[in-house]
Design a protein that fits this description.
9-stranded mixed β-sheet; 21 strands; Phenylacetate--CoA ligase family protein; AMP-bd_C_sf; 12 helices
Length: about 425
């Protein structure tokens, strides 16, 4: 196994794009036949027409909150369903597999239930482990949880796909983790960066050296440059991967340390929060993923996380799309004067007034004296009274409309900024 996990990582960009969209129509058609919720999501869109990104952008975004609501409603509606209908009752009609065909079922907070299929490296993390330097014959000390959520299984199945042995350390029991590492001499760690730091500090306290541990794949929390340097000073090269229980591994860090490279068999988009409309390359928005997973075919799944596409290919030689990593949460719903204001409502205002470029709703004032100001990039001739009327129609609240210069609003993905003082 060389520098790359497989030849797809270095395939020409246009070849990868053609392959993905050549596969997508047939994939979606098969999903519609086995997963009725996917058919409903298409709302009359012909799967055969999903041949490019513009066509895909017409499919409504499925956000995590909607998936939770649909699963919950379906479980209530289908109580007492037969065994064959479990994939409908438990997974809300989004999965094509049920008991027997699914190897495991996991629960994420909500709860949202996710199936695990039977194919090797089902969650797709082997590619990320390989980029982190893990190779066949190594021992991986896995400190992700094996309880309820798939995190532990994600890394274990990836390590097995690479031909590695796994120690299922799980979470907690720091002193025992140190003892196991000292005895077994693992080559790599998988888990959160904060827990590995706790383990290493405990090892220092115990006077135990752990020289074998030189590689790590982190996920589940931020991995800032300061922490990267901390591990490097201890001889550990740590890399990060971004994924979820719904999608598996989405993107991973490489030796270039320039953003995260997208996994294969995924279509990544960055959309304006509250909408399904893709934003220009480099602009921050919500990360939306279509995964070609036949067992759990999620189309245009809104992760709720902010990111941005990076231009060009990675210096490491991998040619797939890159994202800047996690840049915050897209759900900026804010309560103003007792009313919830959603990014979707601001998106509707922009749809009504095409002369507006970007916009940002700033909520200011002190507790009990909320002030809404909609900052808009537009020409001075904009009819601000008409815009204010649309805001009131959408939110049932009054807002001041402030025209600002084109390009002056920050590129941080925020549609609603809560600038109130609570002191």
């Amino acid at each position: 196994m060389g520098a790359f996990y497989d030849t797809r990582e270095t395939s020409p960009v246009d070849e990868r794009e053609r392959d993905l969209f050549a596969r997508l129509p047939g994939f979606v058609q098969a999903a519609c036949e086995r997963a009725p919720a996917v058919a409903r999501q298409l709302q009359g869109i012909d799967p055969a027409g999903l041949a490019d990104r513009a066509a895909l952008a017409r499919v409504p975004v499925l956000r995590k909150s909607e998936l939770l609501q649909i699963q919950h409603a379906t479980r209530i509606a289908r109580e007492g369903a037969t065994l064959d209908a479990e994939r409908l009752r438990v997974f809300g009609g989004f999965a094509t597999v049920g008991w027997g065909a699914a190897r495991r079922v996991y629960a994420s907070p909500g709860p949202i239930y996710e199936p695990e299929g039977t194919r090797p490296d089902y969650w797709g993390f082997a590619r990320a482990l390989h980029a982190a330097g893990v190779r066949p014959g190594m021992l991986v000390h896995n400190c992700f949880s094996y309880h309820f959520t798939p995190a532990g299984g994600m890394m274990e199945s990836a390590a097995h796909a690479l031909g590695c042995t796994v120690f299922p350390g799980g979470v907690g029991q720091t002193e025992q983790q140190v003892r196991a590492m000292a005895d077994l001499a693992p080559h790599a760690y998988t888990g959160t960066p904060s827990f590995l730091r706790i383990i290493l500090e405990k090892a220092d306290e115990m006077g135990v050296s752990l020289p074998s541990l030189q590689r790590a794949l982190f996920s589940g929390e931020a991995y800032p440059p300061s922490l990267q340097t901390w591990f490097k000073d201890r001889g550990i090269q740590g890399f990060q991967a971004y994924g979820s229980a719904d999608l598996g591994m989405v993107a991973f860090e490489t030796s270039a340390r320039e953003g995260l490279v997208a996994n294969e068999d995924l279509i990544l988009e960055i959309v304006r929060p509250g909408t399904g409309r893709p934003v220009p390359e480099g602009e921050i928005g919500e990360l939306v993923v279509t995964t070609l997973n036949a067992d759990y075919p999620l189309l245009r799944f809104g992760t709720g996380d902010l990111s941005a596409l990076m231009p060009g290919a990675s210096p490491c030689g991998r040619t797939n799309l890159r994202i800047r990593g996690w840049l915050g949460r897209a759900d900026q719903t804010t309560k103003v004067r007792g009313m919830f204001v959603h990014p979707e409502q601001i998106a509707h205002v922009l749809e009504r007034h095409a002369e507006i470029g970007r916009a940002r709703l700033v909520v200011s004032g002190e507790t009990g004296h909320d002030v809404m100001t909609l900052q808009v990039e537009a020409d001075a001739a904009l009819d601000t009274e008409a815009v204010a009327a649309t805001v009131r129609e959408q939110t049932k609240l009054r807002a001041v409309i402030e025209i600002v210069a084109a390009g002056s609003l920050p590129n941080d993905g925020k549609v609603i900024e809560d600038a109130r003082r609570y002191d």
